[in-house]
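Risk register update: the risk of archive-format incompatibility is retired. Evidence:
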Amino acid sequence: MSYQETSRKLERLCGLRLSATAVWEHTVRWSRRSCSYKREGGGWSDEVNLSVDAAKVNTVEKGWRDIKLAVFEDATTKRRRCATEIGSSKQWGRKLRRVAGSLGIRKTTQMRIWADGAKWIWKLAEKSFPGARCVLDFYHAMENMGAYARNVFGEGTSEGAKWLQRMGHMLKTKGGEAVYQKLSEVKVRRKAHRKALKKLLKYFRPLLGYMDYPSYIREDLAIGSGVVESACKQIVTQRLKRGRRWLTDHALGMATMRGLFLSDEWDNFWKQQLQCA
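Archived output:
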C-alpha cells in the first residue's frame, strides 16, 4: 500500500500517529538495514533446490534495470531463503555463494537449479555451484516453441496448437535431445520460416543438457521454476512497479525486506535488530 494509506491504517489500528513522510523514512532506514542483515544459517541439508530469475525495475539513475532474484529451498524441511541483487552477474554470484555458505551448504553436487534460458544464469550456476543438477524451466522451452508455431502456422490456429501439444508431449516423454533431432529434420520452404526454425534450434542447442524431463518426472521433480516466478511477482511486480521509479538502493532495500518476509527470516531479522539496539 502507499505510505499515505499506511499512515492512516497505523492510526486507525494501533493509535500510532505518523506522517506519510515518517513512514517513508522508517521504511528506507530499515530496508537499508536489511541489506546488511547477517543471516543465521546451518541445519540445512545438502539437498537444496535453487530457483533463479530476474525482473525489471525502473530506477532513477539508469532507467530499467534487472533485479536478480533467487529462492533457496531445503528439499527436506521446505525452509526457504530469498536473495536479491541489482548489479553485475559477478556480484550476484558472490551473493549467492555467501547465502549458500551461511546455510551450511557444502556439497553443491547435491543441489538442483531451475532457471530460464538466459545464458548468464547457467554460466553463473556452473561457476558458483559446480556439479549441481541444472533444469531448464519447461514452460520457457514451450514458450519458445510456441513463438515458432505462431510464425509457421499463424496466430491461434488449431494446426499450430496441435503441433505444439505434440512437441510438448515429446519433450516430457523423450527429452530435449529427441525434440532437437525432430526439429533438425524439419524441411521448410519460406525464408521467414527457415529463419524462425534456425532461431529455435539455436535456442535449444546449448540447453539440451538441462532438458532431461523424462528423468525429472520419474524422480518426481518439478520441471518448472514456478517458485522464483511467484517470488518475482510478490517482491517486484506488486511493490516495485506500478509506474514507480526508484533510487537503486531503495529498490534493493525494499526487495530485500520483502524477501525476508516471504522466507522464514522475518522474525530473526527483527530480533537481531532489537539485540543490536
